Amino acid sequence: VFAYVLPLVDALRFGMPVAVLFPITMPFFLPFLWINMLFQSIPFGQVILFFGMQFLSANAELPALLRFNLRQAIQLDIAILFPTLFSLFVFRGEMFEEAANAV
Question: Are 81 and 13 in contact (CB under 8 A)?
Answer without folding.
Answer: no
